[in-house]
Amino acid sequence: MSVYLYKERVMKIDNTQIQMRKGILEYCILHIISRGDVYASDLLQELTSARLMIVEGTLYPLLNRLRKAGLLSYRWEESSSGPPRKYYSLTDMGRDALSQLKTSWEELLESTQRITSN
Fold first, then answer.
1. Nearest to residue 86, comparing CAs of 94, 76, 98?
2. Which helix (H) or strand (E) holds 87?
3. Which of 44, 79, 94, 114 suits 61 as a labelling partner, its CA being 20 to 30 A distant?
């Protein structure tokens, strides 16, 4: 196999892996926030510790998009160690969306396991 074809294949695999992570990122974010109000840096830390590598430049626009879609709200809270902090919480619409995503995830997981277990 030529170096060019090898690099092209690796790039396609990398792209597929990135798309897979993006596909579940919103679900994971909504799930984390469903457990209680979350500060963005704590959310980032949990995602990173779970090996869902994400940077602030990706997280904040995503949180803003989820807020504009009506799935999240936020509140400001004073901090004794610096500027006020923005804490995110799920709206009723966000809880409904999370429930639907959970069902989709479970169906997808079951289907994938059926296919890959043979």
1. 76
2. strand 82-90
3. 79
CA dist 17 and 24 (Å) reads: 11
DSSP 96-112: HHHHHHHHHHHHHHHHH
29's CB contacts (< 8 A; 6+ apart) are: 43, 47, 62, 63, 66
The 3-class secondary structure across 72-84, one letter per residue, is EEEEEEEECCEEE
pTM of the model: 0.82
Identify the CATH number of the domain defined by range 27-116.
1.10.10.10
Q: What is the pLDDT of residues 59-100, one digit of tens each?
A: 999 999 999 999 999 999 998 888 899 999 999 999 999 999
Coil, strand or helix at 28: helix
